[in-house]
User: Fold this.
Amino acid sequence: MDDATTRKIDGVIARRGTGTGCIAILQDIQRELGYVPVEAMERVAEETEIKATQIWGVATFYTQFRFEPPGRHRIRVCLGTACHVRGASEVMKRIEKDLDVRSGRTTADGRFTLEEVRCLGACALAPVITIDGNYHPKVTPRGVKRILKRYP
Ligand code: FES
Assistant:
């Protein structure tokens, strides 16, 4: 972990205070760094009263935390009810296959991070995905490749 990263983590701990629960600290670290590296959890353990095993347990329990750097583009595939009944699972499978990546992970080239969500608030446009916050409505498995090309 470089000095700048360590400073960011220490800054989060200083702002939150050592008496805070670790969820808020981990959320802030993820906001700052885009993910929560193992070294960050060790640093939190060093600087607070919280044991490293406890921090790891919390971090892995909540699916909101990422443990690897995010890709350049963030794909969110909605698997909520409205999207599910209109074929979202097939869209997800196609994206996983085309990018050779599983949900929750980042492609080997660092281009995309793939995530699943339960509703993107655009059910009338189902199935929906977002990439970097841009909504792509009524996505089909065949249309996936064309959409992904727009995000080099
Ligand atoms: S269920 Fe997919 S946008 Fe609401």
User: Anything to note?
Assistant: The first helix runs from residue 3 to 16.
